[in-house]
Specification:
It is a single chain. The protein is an alpha+beta fold. Among the domains are: 246 residues, Beta-galactosidase, Chain A, domain 5, CATH 2.70.98; 116 residues. Helices cover 30% and strands 25% of the residues. The strands form eleven sheets. It has a nine-stranded antiparallel beta sheet with strand order 1-8-9-10-11-17-15-14-13. Helix 7 packs across helix 8, helix 8 packs antiparallel against helix 9 and helix 15 runs antiparallel to helix 16. The longest helix is centred in the first third of the chain and has 24 residues.
Length: 754
C-alpha cells in the first residue's frame, strides 16, 4: 500500500512538472512545438534556437520589431494574428508596409474566416471607427476571424496556435490552427507552414486564400536615384506586383483556383500545407503556384539557422555559471552579432556586418565588437576594414550594402577604425596586414594619412583639436555644448597618435617623432585646458573660450586611452553611482545630475537610456582597471534585459525595459556583451606582442564559473573560477592556479605568437 502511494506521488509530481514546463514555455506540446535540445546533434547545445527561444508574451517589442532573419533576408511578425507577417527586407527589395495573411472560406456555409484582427485593431485605434475588435465573431455584420492563442519566437522561427469555433447556419466549424514562419538563407523567400485540425467528425472543405498588400513596390538602392515604380496591382489572389517587383504566394497544395487553394480536412484529423512568399525583381518569369519542394526548402532554412549558431558556438568560448541571467546575456549578445550579419551575393562585402537592422556598416558601431568579431570571423574583419578604406576614411561614415557613397562623417571614425585594427592584430597576430596595399597605399600608410589629416584640419596652436560645430559629429544629442574641443575625442586622438608612433618606430619610420610630438602636445593641452578638478570631469571648450560641462558617458571611453592620471581615473569613475549614471536597467547616457542636457527622447546619447554597446564597453574597461564591483554592478543591471528582449536593441531606457520604436530592434554594438564577459569578467587580455594575461574577477552570484575554448594564437584556454581561486587550462592541461588579484601570464612564445 505504501509502495502504491509512493508511486502515485511520483506520477503526480511528474505530471505537475510537465504541466509547469508547458505553462512556462507558453507553447502547447504539439506537432509544431520547438524541438527538444536532446534531439539535436549539433554538439553546441548551449547556443541553439531552443536556448534562445522566448514566449511572445514576454517580449517587449511590438510585432514590427520582432523579426525572422537568416542572414539573407528578413520579415517581421504581425501581432494578434495566426498567419500574419509584415515588412519585407531582401535588399534591394525593401517593402516596409507589406502585409500578408491567409483566410479560409468554408464550403458548406460559404463563411469566410479571416486573420484580420490586427487590421481591425489598428483602424479602431487610428480612427475610432469601424467594428470593435472585441466584438468580432458575435456582433452581426462583422467579420469572422481566427483567434490567436499562443505565440513563441526562436531565431528564424515563429510558432503560433489559433482557434475558430462557431456554429453557423446550423453547421459547426471548429478548427485548431498551428503555424510556423521562417525565412530562407539562400533565396528571396519567406515560408509559412500551416496545420489545421478539424475537430468535427464530418470533413471540412476549405478554400485557402492568400491576402497581401503594399502601397508601393519600388526597388531601393541607397544613395542611388531610382525610377519610381508603376502602381501596385493584383492580377489575381496570388500575385502583387509593380513593373519592378513581383511578390507571389505559392504552395504545395495542388489545384490552385481563381480564388485560392481547395483543401479538405477529414473529420477528427489534421492536415499540413506549406506556403512561400516569393520575391522577384522584374523581369523574371513568375514561379509556379504549385511548388512541391517547399518542405525541403523549409528544412534547409531550419538547418541554416542551426548552422549559423553552431558556427558561432564553435568559434566563441562557451560560458556557464550559476547565474542563468548572466549566461543568457552572453548568448543574446552573440545573437545580436549574428542578427546583424548579412550574407548576400549582391552586397559589397560577404559577410556584411550591418549596424543592426539598418543595412549599413559604420566603423564606430563595429568597433564595439571588433575583438569578438576577430575571434568569430577574422577574415570578415579584414574585408570590413578594407571596405572602410574604399569608402573613404575621412569622408563617409556609412558604408551602404551596395557600396554607394554618402557624405556624412563622424569625428569618432578614426578612433573607431584604430580600435578595429588593434583588436584584429591583437587577436590574430597578422601584422602583415599593416603592409596590405589597398587603393594605392598600405593599411599603415592610410592610418598615418588619417592622423596627419586630422592634425591638419583640426589642430589649434595650443595642440587641441577643434572638430567644429554640430553635436552630431560627436554624439547625437538635441542640446548644444558637446562641440568643438570635446575632451573624449581629443583624448582618443592622443591614443591614436601614440599607436601610429609605435608602429612607425617598429618600422624605423621617421614620422614616429612627429606623431609622438602631437600626442604629447595634445595630452598636455587636454589636462591644462579641459580638466575641471572641482567636478572631477573634463569640460568641452568653444572657440570663444567658454567652457561647457556635459555629463555624457562618452567620456568613459577615455578609460582605455592611457592618458588619464590615477586621480583623474578615480574621479571620473566615482560618478558611476545612483543619482548620476547608474540606472535600474543599465546606464543613463547623460548623468541625472545634468539638468541642462538630460532628455527622454533620443535616449542612447541624450540622457534617459543607453546605446547598448556602451555599458558593456564600460564594464570591460572597469574590469581591466581593477574596478570589478562597479563593473559587475553595471552588468547585473544589463542582465535584466534578457527577460524582455530576444536580441538586444540599439537603445534601452534606463528606468524600464522600453525602447524607442523608431530605433533599431537589434544592434551590432550590443555584441560588446561578449567582450565584457570574455575579456572583462574572465579577464583574458591578449596583447599586441602575442603574450596573454589572465586576471579574472569573481562574484559570488556566478557560483562555479567556467569559460571554455578561448582560442589565441594556435592554442585554446579555459578559465574556471571558484569562490577562492581560479584555474587556467592551456590546451586542456592545468597551466595556472592563482588567488584573485594575481595575474596568470603567458609569454608570447608560450601563448603561441609567431
Amino acid at each position: 500500500m505504501n509502495l502504491r502511494r509512493c508511486l502515485w506521488k511520483l506520477i503526480t509530481l511528474h505530471l505537475l512538472l510537465v504541466c509547469t514546463a508547458v505553462a512556462q514555455n507558453e507553447f502547447p506540446m504539439g506537432a509544431f512545438s520547438p524541438p527538444s535540445e536532446t534531439v539535436l546533434g549539433s554538439g553546441h547545445e548551449w547556443l541553439t534556437p531552443e536556448s534562445l527561444g522566448m514566449p511572445r508574451s514576454a517580449i517587449a517589442f511590438d510585432g514590427r520589431m520582432l523579426r525572422l532573419f537568416n542572414g539573407y533576408g528578413a520579415i517581421s511578425v504581425r501581432d494578434m494574428s495566426v498567419t500574419g507577417l509584415q515588412s519585407l527586407e531582401f535588399p534591394p527589395i525593401d517593402v516596409r508596409d507589406y502585409k500578408f495573411d491567409l483566410a479560409f472560406r468554408e464550403a458548406e456555409t460559404g463563411v469566410l474566416v479571416q486573420d484580420i484582427m490586427p487590421d481591425v485593431y489598428e483602424h479602431m485605434v487610428r480612427t475610432g471607427k469601424g467594428p470593435h475588435p472585441l466584438g468580432l465573431n458575435f456582433t452581426p455584420g462583422t467579420p469572422f476571424v481566427m483567434l490567436l492563442q499562443r505565440a513563441y519566437w526562436e531565431p528564424n522561427a515563429f510558432y503560433r496556435t489559433g482557434t475558430f469555433h462557431k456554429q453557423l447556419k446550423g453547421h459547426w466549424i471548429s478548427l485548431g490552427i498551428e503555424t510556423k514562419a521562417s525565412v530562407s538563407a539562400v533565396l528571396d523567400e519567406v515560408y509559412l507552414r500551416l496545420q489545421v485540425h478539424n475537430r468535427e467528425s464530418v470533413p471540412l472543405v476549405l478554400t485557402v486564400i492568400p491576402h497581401q498588400r503594399a502601397s508601393e513596390l519600388t526597388l531601393d538602392f541607397p544613395n542611388v536615384k531610382t525610377t519610381p515604380a508603376s502602381a501596385v496591382t493584383a492580377p489575381n489572389d496570388y500575385i502583387l506586383e509593380s513593373n519592378q517587383i513581383r511578390i507571389t504566394v505559392v504552395s504545395d497544395l495542388p489545384n490552385a483556383g481563381r480564388a485560392g487553394w481547395p483543401w479538405e480536412i477529414p473529420g477528427r484529423s489534421s492536415r499540413t500545407a506549406d506556403f512561400a512568399i516569393v520575391l522577384q525583381q522584374l523581369p523574371a518569369p513568375p514561379p509556379l503556384l504549385l511548388t512541391p519542394s517547399l518542405a525541403q526548402r523549409m528544412e534547409q532554412a531550419r538547418r541554416a539557422a542551426d548552422q549559423h549558431l553552431d558556427w558561432a558556438a564553435e568559434r566563441l568560448p562557451r560560458v556557464t555559471t550559476a547565474d542563468p541571467a548572466f549566461d543568457d546575456l552572453y548568448r543574446r549578445s552573440i545573437l545580436s552579432i549574428l542578427e546583424s550579419r548579412w550574407d548576400r551575393p549582391n552586397f559589397t562585402t560577404r559577410p556584411f556586418y550591418a549596424v543592426g537592422t539598418w543595412v549599413s556598416s559604420v566603423s564606430w558601431d563595429t568597433s564595439y565588437v571588433s575583438q569578438a568579431l576577430s575571434l568569430l570571423d577574422p577574415q570578415g574583419v579584414r574585408r570590413t576594414f578594407l571596405s572602410y578604406i574604399d569608402n573613404g576614411l575621412l569622408t563617409n561614415s556609412y558604408l551602404r550594402w551596395n557600396a554607394a557613397h554618402g557624405t556624412y562623417w563622424y569625428a569618432q571614425n578614426p578612433f573607431a577604425e584604430m580600435r578595429i585594427l588593434q583588436d584584429y592584430l591583437r587577436q590574430t597576430g597578422d601584422f602583415g596586414f599593416l603592409n596590405r596595399v589597398e587603393k594605392g597605399a598600405t593599411v599603415l600608410e592610410w592610418m598615418k594619412r588619417v592622423g596627419k589629416e586630422v592634425e591638419k584640419r583640426y589642430a589649434r596652436p595650443d595642440g587641441l583639436l577643434d572638430f567644429g560645430a554640430g553635436s552630431r559629429k560627436f554624439i547625437e544629442i538635441r542640446t548644444d555644448g558637446y562641440q568643438h574641443m570635446v575632451a573624449a575625442s581629443n583624448g582618443l586622438a592622443v591614443a591614436y597618435f601614440r599607436q601610429i608612433g609605435q608602429w612607425c618606430k617598429a618600422g624605423h619610420d621617421p614620422d614616429a617623432a612627429l606623431f609622438d610630438a602631437w600626442a604629447n602636445k595634445l595630452s598636455a593641452a587636454i589636462n591644462r585646458e579641459l580638466w575641471d578638478p572641482e567636478q572631477g570631469w573634463f569640460v568641452n571648450l568653444y572657440p570663444d573660450g567658454s567652457r561647457h560641462l556635459v555629463w555624457s558617458y562618452h567620456l568613459f571611453d577615455l578609460l582605455d586611452s592611457g592618458i588619464l592620471s590615477a586621480g583623474q581615473e578615480q574621479s571620473i569613475i566615482s560618478h558611476l553611482k545612483e543619482g548620476e549614471f547608474l540606472a535600474p536597467y543599465g546606464l543613463y547616457s547623460i548623468s541625472k545630475a545634468d539638468r541642462i542636457h538630460w532628455d527622454l527622447e533620443d535616449v542612447d546619447w541624450g540622457g534617459g537610456g543607453q546605446y547598448t554597446g556602451e555599458p558593456f564597453r564600460l564594464a570591460e574597461s572597469l574590469y581591466r582597471l581593477g574596478y570589478a564591483e562597479t563593473a559587475w554592478d553595471i552588468l547585473a543591471r544589463c542582465t535584466r534585459w534578457t527577460k524582455h528582449f530576444p536580441y538586444i536593441p540599439q537603445e534601452i531606457f534606463g528606468d524600464s525595459p522600453g525602447y524607442p520604436e523608431v530605433e533599431m530592434p537589434v544592434a551590432l554594438a550590443a555584441g560588446a556583451g561578449v567582450q565584457a564577459v570574455v575579456f572583462g569578467v574572465f579577464g583574458l587580455e591578449p596583447q599586441l606582442d602575442g603574450s596573454l594575461k589572465v586576471t579574472p574577477s569573481y562574484h559570488h552570484e556566478l557560483g562555479i564559473a567556467r569559460l571554455r575554448g578561448y582560442r589565441f594564437r594556435g592554442h585554446t584556454y579555459d578559465v574556471v573560477m571558484g569562490p577562492w581561486d581560479y584555474q587556467v587550462f592551456r590546451n586542456g592541461r592545468l597551466a595556472a592556479q592563482n588567488v584573485y588579484g594575481k595575474t596568470a601570464f603567458f609569454h608570447a612564445e608560450l601563448a603561441g605568437s609567431r
